[in-house]
Amino acid sequence: MRQVRVTISGFGNVGRQIAAMLLERRGRYRQLYDADVRLVALCNSRAGIRNDDGIAATDFAAMVPGATGASFLADAKPDVLIETGPSDFATGGPGLSYLETLLAEGCDAVVVSKGALVHSGARLRELAASTGARIRISGATAAALPTIDVLETGLLGCRVLSLEGVLNATTNYLLNAMMARRVEFADALGEAQAGGFAEREPSRDIEGWDTACKLLILANFGLGLDLRMDDVTVSGIGHVTLHDVEDWRNKGVVPRLVGRLDLQGGKPMASVAVRTYPLDDPFAHIAGKTKAMRVQTDCMGEILTMGGGPEPMATASAALKDLELLLAGSKNAASRD
Ligand SMILES: NC(=O)c1ccc[n+]([C@@H]2O[C@H](COP(=O)([O-])OP(=O)(O)OC[C@H]3O[C@@H](n4cnc5c(N)ncnc54)[C@H](OP(=O)(O)O)[C@@H]3O)[C@@H](O)[C@H]2O)c1
């Protein structure tokens, strides 16, 4: 049986959930993939754990101060890095140095945080190609909702004409709350924060940047484009008023914050904005914190995915789906040597 050494950078909500579920699924990995999957190192910003024999759930409390950083994880000689640090698309965030270091060593990566993929996606892809490493990104592209898988494999051979996605759960929840109960934006946001459905610092969600990041990653990783954030026109939902709500209700339409990519002209057009949908459109029925993606293709017509699950389990599950795809696949041949 082959040994597969896994490390995790970032040990917050998602990182902890991934670690716990990965340990629970070790029997599955042995049975299905003939793989002894060992969690050999993990870290947060201040501390970490390393054990070549495999970290157990009972070790999680014994984080060693100072045991962190890209070289700490690289020393564990991992086969797979699962990156779950903070998303910072302006700098790439801490994930960038973890990915640069480990992809350069030929280590595969399952990426959950969006920052490095937006900031340096093309460079990371080139680096991975040069060492034969593989990058999987379901957790960064609306997680439980099948998005990147659909683009990478479900539509093989087709030309994508357009893509639109409700890719941010918080804004969908807020717009639904305003429409259903006629509450002001600030009140809906306050309720969502009190209920744990919105971040305490929600600007990246409500100003549309989280949706823009996911759209850009899907465009670049899923459709082979080379978009930068400057190429995406971004507006959010902070300007939505009860007057808008009444107007939409009177017209029988439903608002969504939508990331949209139009590929039918000469130049790809990417935007994030509130769009409205008539009641007979599936996008009018995206409940609560659910997400959805619709792709128009030349040969397969219109493909729609919709769904989502409770967090952080849904995102952790998406990352572990990526791990299984790595276990099932074969390593890329490096173009360098
Ligand atoms: N939560 C979700 O449902 C969800 C869904 C989809 C995607 N995501 C993405 O997943 C990522 C993690 O989300 P989360 O909810 O788990 O966030 P979180 O609870 O804030 O956890 C972030 C973790 O990253 C660690 N970190 C910060 N700087 C680091 C560094 N230099 N080296 C190593 N670790 C570092 C933090 O350590 P400290 O505790 O020491 O600061 C913390 O353990 C984010 O990028 C988020 O956008 C989250």
Q: Concise description?
A:
With 337 residues, this protein is an alpha/beta fold. The protein has 12 helices and 13 strands. The chain is globular.
List the SSEs and their pairings:
Blueprint: E1 2-9, H1 13-24, H2 26-33, E2 35-43, E3 47-50, E4 64-65, H3 70-74, E5 80-83, H4 93-104, E6 108-111, H5 115-131, E7 135-136, H6 148-154, E8 160-166, H7 169-181, H8 185-194, H9 203-206, H10 209-222, E9 232-234, H11 242-251, E10 253-262, E11 269-278, E12 291-297, E13 302-307, H12 313-328
NADP nicotinamide-adenine-dinucleotide phosphate binds next to α1.
Which class do the helix and strand fractions yield? alpha/beta
Alpha-carbon distance between the two ends: 28 Å
Question: What is the arithmetic mean of pLDDT?
Answer: 96
Shape: globular
Question: Can you tell me the CATH superfamily of the largest domain?
Answer: Dihydrodipicolinate Reductase, domain 2
CATH architecture of the largest domain: 2-Layer Sandwich
Name of the CATH class of the largest domain: Alpha Beta
Strand content: 15-25%
Percent helix among the residues? 25-40%
Pattern of helices and strands:
EHHEEEHEHEHEHEHHHHEHEEEEH
- Look up the CATH topology of the largest domain: Dihydrodipicolinate Reductase, domain 2
In total, the number of domains comes to: 2
Strand count, sense and barrel status of the largest sheet are: 7 strands, mixed
Strand order of the largest sheet: 4-3-2-1-5-6-7
Q: Number of DSSP strands?
A: 13
Small-molecule components bound: NADP nicotinamide-adenine-dinucleotide phosphate
Radius of gyration, Cα only, in angstroms? 20 Å
Taking pLDDT < 50 over at least 5 consecutive residues as the criterion, the unreliable ranges are: none
Number of helices: 12
